[in-house]
Each structure stands twice: as C-alpha cells, then as structure tokens.
Write a structure and sequence with these properties.
Elements: H1 17-43, H2 45-52, H3 58-74, H4 76-90, H5 92-110, H6 116-119, H7 122-152, H8 158-186, H9 189-194, H10 199-215, H11 222-229, H12 237-244, H13 246-276, H14 282-310, H15 313-336, H16 340-358, H17 361-368, H18 371-391, H19 393-404, H20 410-425
Helix pairs in contact: 1-5, 1-7, 1-8, 1-10, 2-3, 3-7, 3-18, 3-19, 4-5, 4-7, 4-18, 5-7, 5-10, 7-8, 7-17, 7-18, 8-14, 8-17, 12-18, 13-14, 13-15, 13-16, 13-18, 13-19, 13-20, 14-16, 15-16, 15-20
C-alpha cells in the first residue's frame, strides 16, 4: 500500500549512487559532444556562407547559410520518430550509441567538404546532406538523453538529474562558442574564412568515439527494463502517443517552443546579426556569447534542483512571461548600445531567463508520458517545436529585419513564442512529487 512503501522502493530499480553517476557521465558527455557538433554551424554561419554560398550581397549569403542551418532542424522530427521508435522498442542505451556515432561522421565530413570555388554546386549539396544527418541524429539524441537521465533518477531528484542533460548542452554550446571566439580573434580574417572555421568540425569528429565508448559501458534504465519484463512495450509508440496521449503530446510541443526561440534568437542568431547589421566585431560578439553561456551552465542545475521542491510549471511559466516582457527592451538596448558590453548584458539576461526552461524541460516532458512511449513522445513533440520555431529562428529573424528594416523585429517573434508556451504550460499536470515514473 502507498502508506507503507519505503523510500527505497520508490527508486527506479533501487539503484546505487555509483550507477546513477555512470549514467549521468555517459549521457552528459555524449550530449555535450552532440550539441558541440550540431551548433558550431550556427556560430560559423558567416564563414560557411562565404565558402558555400558566395554572393555579392552578404545578407543573401547569410540567409542561404541560415537556410541550410535550418535544414538540420527539418530532419530533427524525422530522427526523433525513427530513433525514438528504436529506443522505445529496443532500449535507450542502444539508441544513444547510434546517435553519437552518426553525428561524429556527419560533422567530420562537413569539415572536409571543398568550397564552392573548388567543386561548384556539389559543395552546398554535400553540406546540406551532412546537415540532414546531423539533424536526424540530434532529433533522436535529445529525447533519448532526457528519458535516460530521468529514468535513472531517484524520486525527489528527477529535476536535478534531468537538468544535467541541459547542463551538458551548455558545455557543448560553450565549447562551440569558445572555439569560434578563439579562432576568429587569433587568426587573420583571410585564414579564418579560408580554413580556420573547419577546425572545430574536425575536432567534433574526434570527440565522437569518446561518447561512443562511454555509452557502451553503461546499463539500460531500470524503468525500461521493468517495461520489458511487464511486456508493455508498444509496436508503434507514435500511434499510441497520438491516440492515447494526444493532449499531452500537443502540450509538450507548445511548452517546448519558448526555450527553442530564446536559445536560437539570442545565442545563435544574435552574433551573426550583431556582426552583419549592428557592425559589432564578430570576435567580440562570439566572446560575449561564450561568457554569457556560463550562466546557462551554472543556473540550469540550480533551477532543476529547486523544481524538485516547487514544481516544474512555475519555472516554465516564469520563463514564458519574462520572455514576453523583456524581448523588446533587450533588442532596443542592444540597438542603442551596439558594443561588446551591450551584447554581454543582453545575452546574460536572456541566458538567465532561458535557464528557467532548461532546468526543467527534460524532466517535465519525461514525466508527461509513460515509459513504453516516452522516448518517442517527448522526442517528437520537442523535435517539431525546435524544428519549426528554433531551427528557423535565425532565418526568420534575419528575414524580418530585411523586409521591415526594423532591427527590433526579432523581438516580436520571441514575444509570440512566449505567449504560446505560457498558454501550453497551463494544460500540463504537475508531477514533481510523483514517487516514480510509470
């Protein structure tokens, strides 16, 4: 009976602390490598635009580069669906081993593709193919990493342990940002745009085998093992997710939007925008992004920890509300003070708001769905949100500025996202006090 259940029984599989630590290390390391490989494209968008989409109009070249950046996000829901199916049928660990290997290969090849000047149209074609593979891999990685960590977490600590996925994301993103900042500030402009931008892509390929090794040395989650033993594994997880959990599926999609938009507007789009439109030195813009990223890393686990006490919904609602209130003033401030310090203030505030989302999103999505469809349901709902509203955020923001002539136009996009996600949060059931995942 519920009243006589001892604390150990609420643990997923009564794991010991060492097993949880191994799970966190394996998952977080792989997640950091994946995100490093995926987001470096955004920070080198200007250089990639010159190499693969030469044009007399820098804005057109940047638009083409961001369009290819968005292609990766189009394939995220496809990867979420295919790899999510594999993870719900055969295990989270096996699926995560596949994603890290695929990402390493696609990233390494990107760094080796000759420029448009060398091989013509084949250069952007090969770039798009690699970007498709990166998106496919990341689509399966994100949901698997979230489910893997939360399913390993003991009751009462799911928020904290689930937040390590996003903290690992911060490490990967910061690694990408610092590499871009160091290369752009230490190399001549000619060398950087000629070959320097390729270095992080090749480095990302080298990191892949480390993530692969760590993930092959960790156990499957207890929650999935229980589902196998109970014979509750579904043949078509996505069909079950839509038919039996359609409301939560839509809510998961909606509440995922705001974090995607904040991240890709303020952290991926803003450095290139600041360089091309506001005439802030690109290396300064990248250093600002890298330094502001430390807030993401530090605050995300803190938010996750406190969500175990006060719940996930208050954090997400606060993130949405603050985004609505602060988006316009932040862009206005940067337009008024277009400098390194202006960038740093804007990005630091955006990062702080974003952590109200990153600290809880992995956990709340995992808590919304049962084990036998969890990988697929959270991967696909999040994957569509990040594909539509995150991946196209740099392109949409650039397009809005171009057609309106208003450098504050991207803030309206952030405001709209905050309203949608704030409404979606209201339809989610709070489960931070639930003793164990079903």
């Amino acid at each position: 009976m519920a009243g006589t259940t001892n604390p150990a029984a609420s643990l997923p599989g009564t794991e010991d602390a060492a097993m949880v630590r191994r799970a966190v290390l394996a998952c977080a390391a792989g997640q950091a490598f994946e995100i490093f490989d995926f987001v470096i494209y955004g920070f080198f968008a200007v250089a990639i635009g010159r190499a693969f989409f030469p044009s007399n109009d820098p804005s057109a070249s940047l638009l083409a580069s961001f369009a290819t950046f968005a292609v990766g996000f189009v394939f995220r829901p496809i990867g979420a669906l295919v790899i999510g199916y594999y993870g719900d049928r055969f295990g989270r660990r096996k699926a995560l081993v596949v994603t890290v290997g695929l990402m390493a290969c696609a990233t390494g090849i990107t760094g080796l593709i000759p420029s448009y000047a060398a091989i013509g149209l084949w250069a952007p074609i090969l770039l798009v193919i690699c970007r498709m593979l990166q998106g496919f891999s990341t689509g399966g990685e994100w949901g698997g990493a979230a489910a893997f960590l939360v399913e390993h977490a003991p009751a009462g600590r799911r928020g904290l342990i689930g937040s390590f996925q996003q903290a690992a994301t911060a490490i990967g993103a910061m690694g990408a940002t610092f590499s871009a900042a160091i290369l752009s500030s230490s190399m001549s402009s000619e060398s950087f745009f000629s070959w320097g931008w390729r270095v992080p892509f090749l480095f990302g390929f080298v990191l892949g085998p480390i993530g692969y090794y760590l993930r092959t040395r960790v156990a499957e989650t207890p929650a999935f093992q229980r589902a196998v033993e109970a014979q509750t594994i579904k043949r078509m997880p996505i069909a079950e997710a839509v038919s039996a959990h359609g409301g939560m599926f839509l809510a998961g999609f909606g509440l995922s939007i705001i974090g995607c938009v904040i991240n890709y507007v303020f952290l991926v789009f803003l450095p290139s925008f600041a360089s091309q439109t506001l005439k802030i030195d690109l290396s300064y813009a990248l250093w600002s992004t890298a330094l502001a990223g430390t807030l993401y890393l530090v605050l995300t686990p803190i938010v996750g920890h406190y969500s175990d006490r006060v719940g996930r919904k208050p954090m997400l609602f606060a993130c949405s509300l603050l985004a609505v209130i602060m988006a316009y003033p932040l862009f206005l401030f940067l337009a008024t003070y277009p400098s390194f310090w202006g960038m740093l203030v804007v990005q630091a505030i955006a990062q702080a708001v974003l952590t109200l989302y990153t600290g809880v999103i992995s956990t709340i999505l995992s808590e919304m769905f049962p084990t036998n469809i969890r990988y697929t349901a959270l991967s696909v709902s999040y994957g569509f949100a990040v594909a539509i509203f995150g991946g196209f955020a740099p392109y949409i923001s650039t397009f809005l500025v171009r057609i309106t002539g208003d450098v504050l136009a991207p803030s309206y996009y952030v405001i709209a996202a905050g309203i949608v996600s704030g409404i979606a949060v209201l339809f989610v059931r709070e489960r931070h006090r639930a003793p164990a995942l079903a």
